[in-house]
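Sat 14:20. Reprocessing the chain from the morning session after the first attempt stalled halfway. Input below, unchanged.
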Amino acid sequence: MPIYIQTKQHLNRLQDNMRQLGLWQASPPPEEAFNSIEPFAIDAMSATEWLQWVFIPRMQALADSRARLPSRIAVSPYIEEALKETEGLGLLLAPLLELEKLLQES
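Finished this time. Tokens:
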């Protein structure tokens, strides 16, 4: 199966799991939050906001356009630390870990 399709499957699963855990938001953060230059927009967004409004859309856009996907991503350590108190964290991390593995092996 092409890497682009697999990438989108992992992203869709991440999105579904965020919804299941009640972490999916109806409204985006304020516009200025998207101007952050900090890694993961840590100064302007929560970890789940960054996943929903930055990471997932950017990765989906790369996959949709069949652009070069990053071969090294390390999102899961940040999410694991930032959301260590979140119930169901394993459900959130599973698709991220699978995506990281997929991209590193490609």
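The chain has one domain: 3-105.
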